[in-house]
Each structure stands twice: as C-alpha cells, then as structure tokens.
Amino acid sequence: MKNRTTGDPLAGTRPPFIPDPGEPVDPDRRERDLRAILAQPREVAPRPSPAPMRRRVRTLTAAAAAVLVAAVVVANTPSSEPSEAGPVESPREVLLAAADAAADAPAPTASRYWYTRTRSHRVELVPAAAGHAAYHVVVGLGGESWVSRTRADPGVGLTLDVTTRPLTDRDDAEWKKAGKPLGGPLIPTDPNTGEPALGFSVEPVRAGELKFFLAEREIPLSEVLALPTDPAGLTAYLRDRFRRAALGRVDPSTESHWLAWEAARLLSGEMPTTRETRVAAYTMLADLPGLRTMNRTELPDGAVVGVAAEERTGPHADVVTNGVVELQLIIDPATGLLKEKRDVVVEPGTGTSRVPVGTVTYSETVVQGHWVDTDPVLPPGTDLDQLVKEAGE
Known about the structure:
single chain; alpha+beta; 8-stranded antiparallel sheet; 12 strands; 25% strand; CU044_5270-like
C-alpha cells in the first residue's frame, strides 16, 4: 500500500532515535544495528523425528504456485482481465500444499523472548469537527515487541513509525482542512503534543505464565503449545470458544470468517504455535466451505498464495456498516508462512460514510515472529530499570 502524502510524514514527530530518511546513514548507528542483527540467534532446522507426521505428497504446478490465492467465495466479480497463469489448482489443493510446506518447516526452539516485528495499515473514520467534515484516513503503524517467556524479564514494545494518507480525493480535501494531522482516532497520542505517541511501552516482571490472545480470550503459553494438532480437534476447540463468545447465537457464514481469522493468528507468527498445530490450521481452512481462487490482478504486490473468508457486517461495524468484507490470508507456499492478513470491502453497505469496493480496510504483516535470546534493542540512553519501576507503580 503506497503512501500518497508528500514530504516526510514524520516531520516534527520523529524521536531522535529514529533516523531521518533524508539524512546520510550514520556509520556508528549502522555498525551498532548490524551487531544487533547478527547477534540474533539463528535457528537450525532439525532433522525429522524418528516417527514423523504422516504427510500427503502434493505439488502445485509452477504457474499456479506463482500466482494463486484461495479465497472463501465472495459476492464481488473477479477481474475481467484474463488470468496469466493458465490452468489453476483448486483452493483445497493450494491449502493442503501449504500444510505440507508447514510440516517441513523447522520446529521453533523456545528461548528468552518471543520477538515480533509487525507492519499494519487500517482505515479509520475521523469524525466531523469545527472546520471540516468527517473523513477517512489510512493509518500505517510499524512496531516491535519482546515478551519474556518466563516473565522474569520485562517485556518491551516499540512503536517505530506512524504514517497517514487520506483514502479518497474527498477525504484528502477534508484532511487538509483539518491541518493534515498524523494518525487517527484509534492511535494513542502524546498528551503534551497531541501527536501520535511514538516510542515504547514496558511491561514489568510479573508472576505467572506468558499469555497470548486467541479465540476471544488470553491463553497461557502452555496452552498455546498444547493446542490440538488434528484439524477436527482444532476446529472443535475454536468453535467452542466462538459459540461461547456468541452466547450460542451462531451464523454459519460468520463462523467461517471467524474460524479463518483465528487460524490466521495461529499461522502469522504472532504466537509460538507448534509446527503440528500450523499444519492442522491449514487443513482446517481447507475444509471450510465455498473456497475460490483469485486471478493475478486481484493479488497484492508480491502475493503468492492465500485464503479468505466473507462476512456480512452489522450496524455497529467500525468502517463498513451493513456491508460485506472479505478476509484475505496471503501465504508463502514454499514455507507455509502467512505473509499478510487483510480485510477488503466487497459491498460498501448502508452507512453514510461509505468506503469504495475493493478498499483494504485493514492489513497486518508479521515480518518476523520467532524466539530470541538477546536483549531488546532500545533507543540510546534508555534507562530500562527506571521505566520498569515506573510501569510497576
């Protein structure tokens, strides 16, 4: 997603520890960053165990592996441009091939911190105020986090940058009337400047297990590592959580969308799921009804394979009211890694502030998600002990 704002979107808000892209690279900083990167432990792929999982032998044609995305059937019409790939594999074959690739991936080895580096974009509605009407902006966020496996070390989260661009020409006009503010209503602001709060957060040392969010609740690391490794068991586990959250009122189409979203959590790298659970998640997705493949012209830049699920939104949805959105999960078929998850508008709905069909209202990429044994990389001069003390007060 390209940013249409001109100039430096962080002008006046960039902390001193984030370099200005227009300035020459500082050699000392470059050397320090390289040392930090090289200090990250490198996982070595273990050999298969004496009793390996039973695996299906499947291959995709070269053309299909290069351009396919599997998607739960949606109401929008595919691109009228002809596909450049020729014959395509079925969505189920695509997903089961991704499961095979996940089965071949190295098994993660637990270490000191679970480290993630993420990039996200989302459409936010800025309400009307003096001098401007309501408008939509696309807010981009980049971040890093280190969460302690044993919670004996403080957790650290960094917000590295915030970018903003109006969604349409009309939004651009209202955004300019508002003074071209960075961020949106959902972005925390600095109480002193009113600008997006860049920097970091600290979680003090706590008792108990490290926790991750899955299926509408927090679950401890031990439960993450013990999630079902068979598709039926995983589906039953997630469906049970979904029905509890929905208080027994289950719409089958909504359930499929929700199951696909939770599968994305297991596959994206945001939590340390086992290799066997990732295989089960892909197989579970392959069993969801109504899959389709997408043409090359429908894919984001660099996309290879993925899945998606359709959902009709209600009257209280944030951006698309009483409309239809499609959850798209972009997959690397060679590694079985989930590259991106995103929501795309299929029907804009009945809201007064409608967004165009085809708009990506939310996207998230976990650039890295793995165990590390090195200390968090903090801004120069940061007194972590003092911050931990303040966070615990």
